[in-house]
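Problem: given the chain below (297 residues), write out its structure.
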Amino acid sequence: MSKHKVLLYSFRTNEADEYEKLVIAANLPIELMVCRNKEQAADAIVEAEIVFAVHLPPEVYAKAKNLKWIQSMWAGVDKLLTVSLPQNVTITKPWGVFGQYLSEYVFGYILANRIKLREHMQAQAERVWRGHQLEQIKNTCLGIAGVGDIGQEIAHIAKSDKMFATKELASFVAGVDFLVLILPSTNETIGMFNSEILQQMKPSALLINVGRGALINEAALVEVLKHNKIAGAVLDVFTQEPLPSDHPFWQLPNCIVTPHIGGPSLPLDITKCFVTNFHRYYEGKPLLGLIDKEKGY
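Solution.
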């Protein structure tokens, strides 16, 4: 029986090397084509049946002739869904990987807010003995926009059932102390958190976005933060990445910027998903982490 041809691509050379070692160690019945740049991928994809990769540009996928399945190395697949692919190409993403990382990220900043970490660090920088009243976390309301596996993990840790339906969005955001965004980027969610919605939040509320940058109207959020309409924002994702050096978010004192590090795609975790799914693919079983192309997630 001929081996399944798998294109493995990562633009980070060290990461590609690690993925290659892990996939080879799994001893799968495959012919592995490891690509470290887009030019190599463009050549290899002509014969590839399976792609295990970070995002590849549309012009690379346009050369595919035998492609049947794409296993994304990243949780976000919105860019992949803009590519023109045959209807029979299955797309999957990692599952059960990012919940713990993102939960710790989210609760780290929630706790920092409750103990007034920013205010006390500022006092230290000024060499001023200035205390701020600490607040407990147990009496606060956590709102989670996004109820996929990551949102459920955060909700489980928080023991919260404050989920929402889109039609109730304005009243939902008005009642929470912490608003965590974990939604995918789709036609329905792009720009969902606009000026009108952000203005409904409590002045004491903290916004945390670990979903997609496009969920928020960034210009509207800048204005809300400038005028202290909310307590602050913690942003790990942005419409444009890397965030331009002249973007206002960098200098707003009530805005924390992190470079999309909340849910790392570590080769060992991601390869486990690929290997599990490959066995299911080989045996003709339904794949896990399946993307609904119409819904966009």
